[in-house]
Every structure is written in C-alpha cells, then in structure tokens.
Predict the structure.
Amino acid sequence: MPYTAAEIAKLLGGEVAGNPSLVLKGFAPADRAQPGDLTFAENENYIARAEQSAASAIIIDTPVASSRKTLIRVPSARIAFAKVLPLFFPEPAFPAGVHPTAIIPASARIDPTAHIGPHCIVGEKARIGARSVLQGLNSVGADCLLGEDVNLFPNVTLYARTEVGNRVRIHSGTVVGADGFGYVLDNGTHRKVPQIGYVILCDDVELGANVTVDRGALGPTLVGKGTKVDNLVQIAHNVTVGEHCILVSQCGIAGSTKLGNYVVLGGQVGLAGHLKIGNRVSVAAQSGVMHNIPDGEKWLWSPAQPDRIAKRQMIALQQLPELFRRVKQLERQLEAKGQPAAPAPTGEGPTQA
C-alpha cells in the first residue's frame, strides 16, 4: 500500500524536508532501492550511499540537507526503521476459524476470532484468546491458557498448564514446559525428581526457534514482560527472567537462577544455578557466570568477572610471552656471572623447549 511522505512522517513523529506529497510504494536498502522506494540512513556511510541511490526518500536523524531526495527527519533512524517496515511488509492475516484437521476437545474454549491451523492438537480445558493464531502442527497441552494476539509458528509445543500472556510470539521448534532436569542419586542410579510445576510467559515475550523453557519442579518458571529470546536458548526449571531482557542465541540458564530487568546476555553465555543477576546487567558472549552480579555491572570472560578486572587480566596474559622472554634473558645473564638462577617452584613456570 502506498503512503505519502507526510503520512509516514506523522506516523514516525518526524518532519518532511522536501515534497510532503511524494508517494512512496516500498522500502529497500540503499543498494537495492528503486524509484518510489523509501530507505534509511543512520551514519555518514549510509547517508552517502542513500544519497546516490535510486530511492525517492530517506529516513534520517542527522541535520544534513539534500538537494536530490526528500528527507523524513526523525529522532532515531533505527527506531523509525522498525516502525515503518510493517507498513510496507505487513504480517500475513489468518482467518478466524478451526481447520477441519485440528483436534479440539469439547472442554477447550477457543475464542471465535482465533485461528487454529491444520493438524493442531489442543488439550482438555485449554483456553485460547481473541485473535490468537496456531499456524499448524501445534500441540497445546491440557489446561494451557493463551491470551490475546498470541502467534504460535508451526511445530511449537506447549506442555500442560503453560500460561501465555498477550501478544506473545513463539517460533518453530520451541518447546515450553518440558520436564526440568532434576535427578537424585539413589543407590547408584539417578532417580527422577518429578517436575510438577509449569511455565508463565508474560505479555509481549518473543521466543525464537528451538528454544526450550522447562517447567518448574514445584512452582513456575517465569519469563517477564517484553523479554526477547533468540534461537537455541535453554531456560531451566525454576528460573525467573525479568522484564525486557535480551537473551542471545545459545545461552544456557541453569535452574533457579533469577535475572533482573533489562539484562542482556550475549551469545553462548552460561549461567550457573541458583544465582541472582541484577537489573541492567550485561554479560559478554561466551562468558561463564559462577557468581551473583550486582545491578548495572558488565561482566565477561570465563569464569566471568567484572569487565575492568577481566580486561586487565587479558592484557596481562598477552604480555606473558614477552615477560617469559625477559626472565629467561635475566637468567642467562646471572648464569654468565656465576650466579645460578633460582629454580621455578615445582609445577609452576613455563616449560622451555
């Protein structure tokens, strides 16, 4: 659907520099844009490319001028980019109703505006809210509760008693509510501890593909409002993830650990169990966290440490080869003067070739 530059500027809270009546029919990156397209630029490199492109208009958050393009000035080009894309690339609409291949028990309550796609299975007494979508091949266990505008992509599985808030999106292959990993050693064998809890996903959560969220041993595993979880993340039993957190791909959070609000975990971060991670904490990729982290701190490395300490240690490690060389040189000078160097303590010091 086409929009004028003025209409887009109004939506974005920006202003037009150029022709406000310019009709824009699409959105594209600068190197692929065609006449009638809108593009965006958030730094000097992008601005230069956008200025030379075929695009008719540019979203921009800098004071530069253009004699060739209509500009839509906004407070943040990146945020405007996220807001404008759905105008030109709306998500597919799913008609209300239940596909004839779906299996729905009489005890389930499905809002008449919901869409239940092919080969979906809904458990006893499950409830699915208004405008929610099960795209296909979904399994929703008994007593599950789905709010409004939930979207389950194909092959998502929700175990029994999972609670899903409003506007939650769960991508393909994700399993919510599987047994937590709980065993106790009994006479040489691992006896399973029954996992009788459940999972709560609060409003506006998004889970990527092949995410696993285990149910609690007794109570809930909880993912807070607005939290976004990348593909291939494991959230163990009894974990609490705060609001508006970002968990990047291949993170693993062990049981009973609690994350505050606005926590960011980089890719492949591992958190040990029973930890407390404060609000607005950032943990760099591939870090292994073994200790509690206070509010607002940045940690990295494995085992993870506060960033300033870890960076000093990294620098020291990089200097070790030169330090060893200088020590060896001093030892040779002492030996030349007839003063033998003290031997390194057993099990310490570098092995010399």
